[in-house]
Amino acid sequence: RGAEPAGRGMWLPVGPRRRVAAVHGDSPLPERLRFYDGWAAQYEEDVAALEYRAPSLAAASLASAFPAPPAVARLLVVACGTGLVARELHRRGFRCLHGVDGSAGMLERARSTGLYRELRRCVLGPEPLPAPAEHYDAVTVVGALGEGQVPSAAVTELLRVTKPGGFLCMTTRSDPSNLRYKAELEAALERLEAQGAWRKVLAQEVERWERATAEGDSTQGTGYISGVVYVYQKCPLSPLEEG
């Protein structure tokens, strides 16, 4: 009643389950953005029910990569949502945070946190990031690299706005419904590394990423899906810029 199974002995409320499933579908982009606008008020409650760990895992991974205290580092949070990643970064000493998101409703919630120095609307993929080249010490995209969301080819745009020597932190899911996308993403990441555009600092697979919304996605019947955090460091001379 009001909940459905998400694996062996796990129960997930129907509302969050359906809303999360909806954003991973193949609906047209304008329709998904309208969904996010409407979801903004319930988003944090839903991801709490999912036990969604990506924001804290990504922030911890990025903080560990920095060789010096991060307070003066300028960071761009792509697909910033309501501000979950910004809160985790702020806890770890990052203070100069900019954010972009395709949803006006999500941006309104993010603005209310007071954690960002700048927030702008941008749909990464169809649109370039609203920033000059080599502008940020680090760029994060957490939760948006997935099937039906930001295309894997957009990682070159993340690279463009990162300073030489700066860091890029990305996440994706490893559940069955996202494996095709994950393979495309990792192929793109490896191509850029082979070109000398960046070097891999970290690729951490995490078993309990979030609770599954479909029993078929559950990792070995645990009720959870797995995911991965990637951290790359941009090389001082990028072939993308030289070309």
UniProtKB/TrEMBL annotation:
One of the record's GO molecular function terms: S-adenosylmethionine-dependent methyltransferase activity
Domain Methyltransferase type: 77-169
Pfam family, one: Methyltransf_11
Domain of life: Eukaryota
CDD domains reported in the protein's UniProt record: AdoMet_MTases
Gene3D superfamilies given in the database record: Vaccinia Virus protein VP39
Protein name as annotated: MET27 protein
Source species taxonomy: Eukaryota, Metazoa, Chordata, Craniata, Vertebrata
